[in-house]
C-alpha cells in the first residue's frame, strides 16, 4: 500500500480502535458489576421449618430419619409450622405427609391419642380395601354404624389398633362382605361394643377417615 494511502486511512483506524476499546471497557464493567451484585444485595432473612424427609403414612410414629430442618425465606415459612424435631419425635401422624411437606401440629396426633381410655374394647370391623393404606395403628377414625331405625346412623369414635395384618405379619381374615373389603382392629369405648357387633352382623359398618 502506498504511504499516502496508508496515512489517509490511519485516522479511521485510530477511531475504530478507540470505539472497540470503549466497547470492551463497557463489557468489562458489566461483567464486574454482575460478579459484585450478589455481594451488594443484603441476605434475605430465613426461618427454620420442620419438614417430612420422605413420604409418611398416617399413624406413623415419627423417628429422626423421618424429619429434617430446612431453611426457607422467612416470608414463605408456613404459619404454625414446627421448627424443631423434638416437637414431633415419637408422635404419630394424623394425615399423610409428602416428602418436603412442612409438619404442623394439626398433622400430628396428641401424645396421648394413640388409644382410647384404659379398658377399651378392641373389635374387628370391615373396611374398604382402598382405605387400608391409611389405617396405621394409632390413626383415629369414625365408625358409622346402622341402627334399627333405617333413617338414622350412629357415629362412634375409634382408634386403629392393627391394619390388615397382625404385628407378626399374619393377615387378618377378610370379611365376607365382598372381595374389596378387609378387616381392621379398632379400640372403642366398651359401651359401644355391643352396638358395633350387632351392626357388623345384622346391618352395616362404614369406617370413615377424618381430615
Q: What's a quick, concise take on this entry?
A:
The protein is α+β, with helices and mostly antiparallel strands. Helices cover 23% and strands 25% of the residues.
What key attributes describe this structure?
211 residues, alpha+beta, 5-stranded antiparallel β-sheet, 7 strands, 23% helix
Could you please describe the fold and organization of this structure?
By secondary structure, the chain is an alpha+beta fold. It contains 2 helices and 7 strands; from the N terminus they run αββββββαβ. It has helices at 3-40, 193-202, and strands at 46-52, 67-73, 121-128, 140-146, 153-162, 181-188, 205-209. The strands form 2 sheets. It has a 5-stranded antiparallel sheet with strand order 3-6-5-4-7, covered by helices on one side. It has a two-stranded antiparallel ribbon with strand order 1-2.
Q: Tally of extended strands? A: 7
The strand line-up of the biggest sheet is 3-6-5-4-7
Instruction: Specify the helix fraction band.
Output: 10-25%
Radius of gyration: 34 Å
Global shape: rod-shaped
Low-confidence stretches: 165-179
Largest sheet: 5 strands, antiparallel
- Spatial gap, N to C terminus: 90 Å
Strand content: 15-25%
SS summary, helix count:
2
Structural class of the secondary elements?
alpha+beta
Mean pLDDT: 76
Would you list the SSEs in sequence order as H and E?
Answer: HEEEEEEHE
